[in-house]
From TrEMBL:
CDD domains on file: PBP2_GluB
Keywords carried by this UniProt record: Signal, Transport
Keyword Signal recorded: yes
Protein name: Glutamate ABC transporter substrate-binding protein
InterPro entries: Bact_solute-bind_prot3 (IPR051455), SBP_3_CS (IPR018313), Solute-binding_3/MltF_N (IPR001638)
SMART domains linked to this entry: PBPb
Amino acid sequence: MKQSRSRLGVAAAVLALLALAGCSYDATKVPTHKESPAAEPTPASCETTDADLRSYDPSKAAGDAVNRIRKAGVLKIGVSADTLLLGARNPSTNAIEGFDIDVANQIAKALGVEPQYRVINAGQRIELLEDREIDIVARNMTINCTRWQSVAFSAEYYRAGQKVLVRPDVADKYAGPQDLAGLKVCAPTGTTSVDNIKAAEPDVISEPALTHTGCLVKFQQGQVDAITGDDTVLAGLVAQDKLYAAVPKQDAFTKEPYGIATNADDKDLVAFINAVLEDMRTNGTWQKSYDTWLKPYLLIDATQPQPAYGRP
């Protein structure tokens, strides 16, 4: 028992240090009064339908946004640095890498500019795009109708689903969100996961953290009973801690279509990104990245989602 407590303390300390390191990686500074917003702005609610997955027709024609980025010589990208498999700092090289980072790099390469990463939390995504502190967000961001009121999205580039992570000793008994009634469940602020888990089981006690790494620290310290989030994110947490964390076999209780987000006015940039995503489909770049980062942990033979275009 003493060894278990010692291990938990060490793991929590290491993860906390990683989270702090990620927050200091910004290439540019956020104004003090906006540094850590608790959550994304929440425009009037709406019901997301398949029509909300429609994006602008792909085109590599240069408009105002594309020309601005090319003139600057850099693509400012909001990313995660602690979401293993999607966007995380490699402790050996200090580079941020993962599936989302591969997609962002392909966009920068096609634009002919250097990628400039800015580590952000989920609650900062929309505000920093609106303030033009960053050009795009490549941070497992779900496309929905509410967010379309504030930002623009590329076509869907990955379809995730929300699931639950628990302790290995209770994984076999887990049958669905109803088993979480009265339990403390962690999800990052500014994500759709918080609302989704409450909708699935209203008696869940929500215990938020700024990031999923923060949730994992709380989980290891016994402050929460479970973590909820996209299956991609939870797979990364299990990869970090196979001893204390497990994602039991379960059906996803939401659909989470990921899109690259931009400022709402940058339609030409969205069209350009969609053209890059089409290139990734035809040249095998998307499949190679998925097979490298996600397939070994999700154990699913996935392919790039079919895009939906025709947004006016």
